[in-house]
C-alpha cells in the first residue's frame, strides 16, 4: 500500500528497506536483495553515514546504479556533524558514497551538540541547492518535536524516524498523534525488534502464526501490516537476503481485520507511556 510521506509528500510504499549492519553480510546477496526489493515495490531505502562508516551507503550506491529514479532514498547525518558546514560536508560525502546527486530525505540521526536552528538552516540550504528534496529528524520525542516545529515552522519537517515494533509501542502514546497532527511521516525502525522477533513458540508468536495462517501470510508480514496500519506510518525492515525481502514485500498486500488488530493489541500490549522515548 502507498501513502503520502508527510503532508504533501510523495506517495511511497508503506514498507521499505533498512541497511544497518548490511556491510557485515554477503555483499552480493545484499545487493541482490535491495534490487529484488525495488522490483517488488520496496522503494524506500534507508541508510546513514554512520552505518559501517559509509560502507552501507556504498553498497546501496551499487544496488541502485541505473535505477535511481525508482528509489526514495534516505540518509542521516550524525549529530556531531550537524553544524552548518559539517552537514554540508556529510551530505556531499553521502551523495558520493551513494553515487547520486540527491537524497529524497535527509535526517538528523538523533539530537546532539548543535542547535536545531543551525542544523535546519543547513538542511534548508541543501534543499535549495537540490541536494536533498526534503528533510526530517530521528529519535525525536514529543517535546523535541515541539521545539523543532517552533524552530522550523510548519510543513518543513517531513519525517520522524523512531523505534517501533510489537514489543515497543511507546510512540503510539504521543509521537504518532503529534506527527499526524502536523503532517509528519513516521518511519518505524527496527520493526522486527532489531533481532528479537517473537519466537513461534511464545504466546505472542502463536497469535501471530494463527493470524498469518488465516491469511496465507507469514508472522513477519502480520507484524509489518500491524505496524503500518495507520497511513502515517512506514516501516523499514533490514533484510540482507533475497528470501527475506520477498517475505517482507508480501506485507504490502496484507489487510488485517479489526479482530486481528485487537488480538495483536492484546498479545503485545502498548504499556504505559515511558518517561523518555526508547531508542536503539
Ligand atoms: P530489523 O529490521 O528489526 O531486523 C533486522 C533483522 O531481521 C535482520 O537480522 C534480518 O536478517 C532479519 N529479517 C528481516 N526480514 C526477515 C524475514 N522476512 N524473515 C526472517 N528474518 C528477517 O532491525 P534493524 O536493522 O535494527 O532496523 C531496520 C532499519 O531501521 C535499520 O537497518 C536502519 O536502516 C534503521 N534504523 C534506524 C535507527 C535510527 O536511530 N534512526 C536505529 C536502528 C535502525 P537478514 O539481514 O539476514 O535478512
Features:
two-stranded antiparallel ribbon; 9 strands; binds NADP nicotinamide-adenine-dinucleotide phosphate; 10 helices; globular; 14% strand; 280 residues
What does this 3D model show about the protein?
There is one protein chain. The protein is α/β, with parallel strands linked by helices. The chain has one domain (2-199, 233-241): Alpha-Beta Barrel (TIM Barrel), CATH 3.20.20. Helices cover 39% and strands 14% of the residues. The protein has 10 helices and 9 strands. The chain has helices spanning 27-39, 55-63, 84-98, 116-128, 142-152, 175-181, 203-215, 219-227, 242-249, 258-267, and strands spanning 2-4, 11-13, 44-46, 72-77, 105-108, 135-138, 157-163, 185-189, 233-235. The chain has a 7-stranded parallel sheet, with helices on one face. A two-stranded antiparallel sheet has the order 1-2. Helix 1 packs across helix 2, helix 1 runs parallel beside helix 9 and helix 7 (203-215) packs across helix 8. The longest helix is centred in the first third of the chain and has 15 residues, at 84-98. The mean pLDDT is 98. It binds NADP nicotinamide-adenine-dinucleotide phosphate (NAP). Residues 18-20, 25, 46, 109, 138-139, 161, 189-195, 220, 236-241, 244, 247-248, 280 line the site of NADP nicotinamide-adenine-dinucleotide phosphate. NADP nicotinamide-adenine-dinucleotide phosphate binds next to helix 9.
